[in-house]
## 1
Amino acid sequence: MEPTRNSHATLVDLLDRVLDKGLIIQADLIISLAGVPLIGVNLRAALAGMETMIQYGMMEEWDKSTRAWEGEHRKAKRTAVTSGEEVLLEMPGSYHYSQGIYTAWRTGRIYLTDKRLILYNPSFEEVLFETPLQRIKGLTLEEDKCFTEKVIGDLCLLLESGDVIRLHALDTPGLKEAIEQRLLMLGLTWQQVPSLSLQDERTASFLREGEEVVCQGETWHLVISQAQGIATSQNWKHGHLYLTSRRLCWWHDFERRLIFEVPLEHIVASILVTNGRKAAQTNNRKGVLDVIYQGEHGKEVSSFSGDHLTCWKGELNRIVLSEGIGTNRHSEQTDLQEGVSSAPVVQTLSRIDS
Amino acid sequence: MGLETKYIDETKGGKGEKDKAKEEGMYLYCVADTGERASLGAIGIAGNEVYSIPYNDICAVVHNCPAHPYQSNNQEVVKTWVIEHQNVVDTAWRKWATVLPSSFDTIIKGESRDNTEQNMKDWLKREHENLKSKLDKVRDKAEYGVQIFWDPKVMAQNLLETSPEIRELNEEIKQKPKGLAYMYRQKLENLIKHEMETGADVCFRVFYKRIKKHTSDIRVEKTKKAEQGLQMILNFSCLVQKDKYAELGEELSQINQMEGFSVRFTGPWPPYSFVGGS
């Protein structure tokens, strides 16, 4: 193999060397170099710009300036926003960081500048996440269907690389609008992605075809271990409760699987106990939601605790009514006293009745 | 062609006229391994007269200019300047065999023309030992650029056939309902991406070893965006003995023949990547 040095094909290789490398002379002897790299960058931008333009159909001027900017600031990455960059919007926010089994929301301040979107942690002077705006290929506001005071939306960004970034901001819809406005001004196109199918892995692993999540939320569940039909121990475990179009199920976070599920038509009733007795172990006084359903061996009860239990109860009872099951819920409840085998539940029920 | 004319100019070039205006800058092209005072002719940037300023057994190859950098918004103009810069370095390199090239727009300043020249000499004097050891380091050597690319499509296809884990997942997808298949495909893509990253690391290490043994020194450069759907997996600047580049070329052609891999081999360049630092 013979090396080539044809002046056209290797121009970029030449530029890399002539502009970035070579002898270094002490600064006091030579004239200010402040403007010098700019020439190189402009030049390189012009050369690189052509390929990129063809590849992405971008406007040349804009692409050039971005590239110039990138080159100029490559070394100054430690500060969140550099001079010459205009901050359009700033607000507290966080982003969902996921690496292997480690996932966390990392919080900081979101900066939308005329060129980039940045999440910066001022205390650690750390850029948690950043992307040039032209890499954003899709945007969507994912509404979390959990029971909170207001519906919280996460902003999901689909990047050129195919990665999906989940952001959360003080005013997420506002942030989305601002990004879109800026993209529009830059003449960039992006997709309005109706849903990026970001239903997390969890739901994907248990949802059946045609089944949809109606509600979901973080809850505690009283897990009863049984030996030969006799309850041996009861422990509150942490996980997520899902109401789907077909089932009510509970995902155990630790085991990462469903350990409770019941078809909607088997749900008889749900009862909310708020005296805090049963929930003592969950370290909160939020009450306990008992769900009564038709199990394999007659009526059974499962207990849940957590936030928004009233909403859960309302939702479950609405389903029970609309499914036309448990037609006479009062009589069912009375029956339960005999039907249910688990002792604590019987106590609960009798307390309610009395 | 352009290059040739410049080389001819070198032979024609007369003694440089003394500067007419009171300029206070001196554009440095390179330091050469000779104590000769000579003119290379009007081959410099914008047709400037290029000459050498000797100190002891080394010299600075320069042209006289005002004390501000060459700047232009016109890319064609700048491109021409860079090529002219390179032509001067090449000329000096041919003439004196060993040079330390400086980067574009390195301009030494002075209060007057004489003072500028004095500054240049003082610098040569002060840095003599350092410059001399750098010259020794690059003597009889040239720089070559080696970039290796792979075709990610070929690599992904290979993985689908060879990795049991990926093959299994790929089979599994076919039996999944639509919604789930989407998630699985994402999973598969991630897995392939991950395996490819690992693969690229392995290739990097293997190729590094194979290439390094033919070089006197090697610099690992940043990889860049490649064209035509290829990915650059390594980018080296290699300092190679002038009589050894054929060996390196042989090694590279073997890599170039591997399925899915292609090699870009450029040079010989003046040793730009091996003269920085102090």
## 2
Amino acid sequence: MKLDFFKQSIFKQFVVSNLSVIIVALLCYASVDYIGYRSVALLLLATVSILSMFFTLYPVLTAATLSALIWDFFFIPPHFTFHVSSSEDVLLLLMYFVIALVNGVLTSKVRALEKLELQKEERSNTLKLYKTLFDSISHELRTPIATIVGASDNLLEKDSHVSENDKTKLIAEISIAAFRLNRLIDNLLNMQRLESGMLSINRDWCDVNELINSPINRLKDELSTHNLQVQIQDDFPIIRLDFGLIEQALFNLLHNETLYTPADSTIIVTAGYAKGNLIISISDNGKGFSDEELRMLFTKFYRSTVKTTGGTGLGLSIVKGFVEAHEGQVKVENNSPNGAKFTIEIPSEILELNGSMDFTDFVIKENVEHETLSDQYIPKRKHKEISSDEI
Amino acid sequence: MNILIIDDEVQIRKLLEITLNSNDYNTMSAATAKEGIMMSVVHPPDLIVLDLGLPDEDGQEVLRKLREWYLGAIIILSVRSSEEDIIKALDNGANDYLTKPFRTGELLARIRTALRQTQNTATIQKLEFDNLSIDLTARTVTIDNEPLKLTATEYSLLTLLAKNDGKVLTHQYILKQIWGPGYTQQSQYLRVFVGQLRKKIEPNPVNPKFILTESGIGYRFCTKVEE
């Protein structure tokens, strides 16, 4: 049984346990004429037993002692003294003490065992996680290395019968394998930056069109089998974030799209700005995710069991890490009627371009004298606004 | 043309020698900073390809030392890919920067650009790129022979980039050149004006072919879309 409410400070445990004993004792005191003072001992004992289920050793022992004293003082005749007259009652009181103490000690022992078991389970979970990681990384490393070794062996063979055309294909495979290795190393290094807490965010003004087109260009070949649509306005305001990190996050999301959606799927990338947040969404009409996948997707090293392609389970946790480093969030949901939709929200300042800068005074007219050209244009009004925003 | 390769990795030296020799460049190789600096003094090369991770001295330091007297082109070839390292190397006088792994085609293009820029000292009056033409004496810009209206700042920015075509210019360098030393942190000006300029000269501003972005570092003016 796990009740977080009871996992409170030791002081609270003392207060709550002793208070419970006193309350039960008061109730018994009111009804002692009907139930007899000996059943009161049983009721108090039951209270202590229940307390020992939730609390640690010392609060329970204190409650046990308190209840014994209360029973002795208020219930055993003669009342209002610790003196016990009948020898039967002396025995009962002693037994009461022993049972209450044993109760407390036993439950605390059981609980210590439980804790140990829990730690063991946690450790084995961590081990399992590492094993998964090492398995997937060694798979991811060895596959391209195998390709490189195999293809270059083939090319180096003196009397090989490989046609020129096939030789070119082998060389292309070597190249693809090498870039795949490089991507894995990038991901491992990024994960390490996140895990070590060494990640620093360098926010600077950047163009959202560039931010989105950069990863698309890097993935030109992989995306060529898909139908990609980018829906973003030309004069999108410039935005302040760490270009390198968010570009990598978008790259990982888009790269996943190329791996996990079937060829000819439609991928739609949109960008918008609302309530101080840059919102970028990437959606597809692929297979979408099961409920379990939706829940687990951003967990470190998690890999979808349904998909067969490799992967280390690092990509999406890096996305999450980089976006959260910007105090933003990343969400995944299923798209209707099918497919998945990833949404990144990043709080950021913006600088609206539309109409905010008046260039008319500086337009070069055909026959204007060229001295004016050397005048540097500084957008004064905006400058003030920006510098006051900057920290 | 003589190219000096300073890199401690045999594999990289071998790859560079083969690639460069087959493209009619003569090569010399050094495995340490000491050896490299000595070779550059004895036989001043036209261009130096320098690795930053050398065993005996930090590459940035080697770069600073070389720049005290060496006027030829220096291209950095390094596994260090952080923006800080790249900007630092460019500030220390490197003409260009490529991170390992690199495409050899890309390296050859950068070498050609760097050699052209360090050797061409003649005053240029006209810059031509595809359908874009800049007349530096008349201070006019045309696209498909149609005159283009540019603001003073847009014109300065365009000529600064175009005069250094093929070379990466850092944000700070551009801001300092166009707006002055007090404006090196005002990167939003640069974004805005590059955006404006792209709209005027690029056939597709969203996927530019003239003003290319070096993310986190700066801009590079190019006449062709890079592969």
